[in-house]
Amino acid sequence: MAGVPDASDLGSLELFRGLSAAELARVNDLLGRTKFPAGAMILTADQPGEIAYIILEGTLKVSTLQSSGRELTLALLGPGEVVGELAVADRAGRSADVTALEPAVLVWLDRGSFVQLRRDIPAITENLLRLLARRLRLANAQLQAMATLDVHGRVARQLLALASVLGEDLPDGSSRIPLRITQSDLAALVGATRVRVNEVLVGFTRRRMIAVDRQHRITIHNRAELEAYVE
Question: Is residue 2 a part of any domain in this protein?
């Protein structure tokens, strides 16, 4: 069974960008497809790496459990992102847990198919490197913010980083982050309490710097004012 009804749709995913129609058709024939409900554990840190997932719909949380029992959120990932690719590539175990924050639709490749496609279609490897580089930039921004900024600055920088990498430009000049981001998720990302993050978001909203919809999607209306908090 093919991953998607129309193989050409895979060309909009960054991992498969630039592939020919024939290459997309070959990829599609190798893909599996699955759905997860909100709250489902998709991968755990103690699993062997046998499958790489590509997100079609939904938001996933990548996290790890510290020795203290506290959960550390490493990243939030949305459509087009890949999870599980490192363990599949180097045969080591998973490095983190991955949970669905909302109903999610994913396609997947087993280890053999993933290795074969990377060997036969070099563009996939190039695209994967770009995805990993983007994720590394977000992680670096997060670490720098944690070390140098107060909570207002950390929240502002995290939102700006997500908008810069994943943001959807709107006709009015705003930028919508296409991820489900609750106050608790954002608090875990910036190393603050949910109550404190709520106070920051309420302030940003009142000043019309951002807006948060009922699906917990955040739209940045005034990038310049947010940037003032990270200078």
Answer: no
